[in-house]
Amino acid sequence: QARFSLGALSNLAKGRQGGEDSAVTVAIRVRPLNSREQKMKAKTVVSVSGQETTVHPPHSQQKFSFSFDFSFWSCDAQDGCYASQETVYESLARPLLDKVFQGYNACLFAYGQTGSGKSYTMMGYNEDAGIIPRFCEEIFLKAAEVKEDNVTCHIEMSYFEVYNEKLHDLLTSDKEKNKTKKTALRIREHPELGPYVAGLSAYVAGSFADVQAWLELGNKQRATAATGMNDKSSRSHSVFAMVATQTKRETSDGESLTHTMRSHVNLVDLAGSERSSSAQTSGMRLKEGASINRSLMTLGKVISALSEATQSKKKPFIPYRDSLLTWLLKESLGGNSKTAMLATVSPAAVNLEETLSTLRYAKQARSIINVAKVNED
Ligand code: ADP
Ligand code: MG
After folding, report:
1. What is the rounded CA–CA span in Å between residue 18 and residue 21?
2. How much is the CA Rg of the chain, to the nearest whole Å?
């Protein structure tokens, strides 16, 4: 007769290693035709309906439909699927924020062809703010809420980018770096918390206004560094990272107890996906070095290895360490994190191949299962 302790049973219910199993949430967002495309009377080959995104190649009866957690349209034309910045935030990012306050790690990354709306969705504009500023604004509102339950929430933030397999701190200027003789940023691995960037500046943010100031600086540094460098902005990955530490103090029988939960948040605006797919179709011309985005290519390999892993029982090898980005996002992909992916596409016929490739990629990502645990002590 098999016997289980109650603890073992509840761990079984929670999934592997006592964590909570959850699939990566995937949303598609179709941007509107831009003014140039409108002027050229570009043909729209994408449609959305409910959770489905469908691609209709011109001059063909064939169509390709994919089902996602969300399929968002960006103007009023398509009934019921129009999603504002607020709707996208509420559907995809707000649930992650709630998980952060329960003590889980969270990650949201934007994937898609250059010009398809990654930065618009992640950062947006002042009057039309994207996910990152909305997330930061709400984290402080939530922090004020939990304060009423005697929980103090401490928030630290960093902002960096990965370009040509090098890490760049976006919150210190080069001048300052020279002054302090800062050595190059490197990835280190903490035995329990996983990979992190050593030497990266991290600032305590006491309010949303603090974060806004740092974001402005980081975005400016990103833009400045991009000028003069061939197409840098579309080939770099930016990572906005926060660590939220919640501490609850209680007194019981005259003894004071503290309970701490720590959550890592990564909000990632990836490099344009077009190079990775063209590099793959042209047989990986590895000698071209800089023109191939190693981090993006490895991300593709990691996602397909993980999605195969959910279909087979064997523990596969996942090449996290083959690139900086995948190494850093190790916990976010198949590990200890609640993760969402936003895939952005263009509706225009000229981008049909890239759009299909993005949708296939997103479909694979949707089968990744993460095992998230509350990080507490
Ligand atoms: P990416 O970061 O993927 O290269 P951007 O976010 O810079 O692309 O978007 C390219 C252009 O399209 C920008 O001018 C942006 O404002 C516009 N755009 C993208 N997505 C949308 C959207 N959903 N609604 C309105 N404009 C958008
Ligand atoms: Mg961009």
Report:
1. 9
2. 22
Count of beta carbons in the 10 Å neighbourhood of residue 99: 20
Q: Select the more confidently predicted residue: 264 or 275.
A: 264
Angle at alpha carbon of residue 286, lines to 284 and 287, rounded to 5°: 140
List residues near ligand 1 (CB under 6 A).
Answer: 29, 31-32, 34, 74, 112, 114-120, 234, 272, 344
Is 182 buried (19+), middle (13-18) or exposed (0-12) by CB count in 10 A?
A: middle
367 CA from centroid of ligand 2 (Å): 26
Quote the CA–CA distance of 170 and 162 in Å, as a whole number.
10
Q: Which atom of ligand 1 is nearest to the CA of 125?
A: 16
Query: Which of 75, 120, 222, 276 has most ligand 1 atoms within 8 Å of CB, for mutation?
Result: 120
Measure 269 CA to ligand 2 centroid, in angstroms. 7
Per the rule left: phi > 0, alpha: psi between -120 and 50, beta: everything else, 17 is: left
| Ligand 1 atom at shortest distance from the alpha carbon of 85 | 23
Question: Which residue matches tokens 């409910």?
Answer: 50
- CATH architecture for segment(s) 6-372: 3-Layer(aba) Sandwich (3.40)
The residues carrying an active-site annotation are 115, 117-120, 269, 272
Q: Which pLDDT value is given to residue 287? A: 40
Cα of 137 vs centre of ligand 1, distance in Å, is 22
Tell me if ipTM is over 0.85. Answer: yes
Which tens digit of pLDDT belongs to each residue from 280-317? Answer: 444 444 444 445 689 999 999 999 999 888 777 777 89
Is the four-CA dihedral 65, 69, 73, 77 of positive or negative sign? positive
pTM: 0.90
Domain-by-domain residue ranges, the chain? Answer: 6-372
Give residue 182's pLDDT: 54
Count CB-CB contacts under 10 A for residue 227. Answer: 8
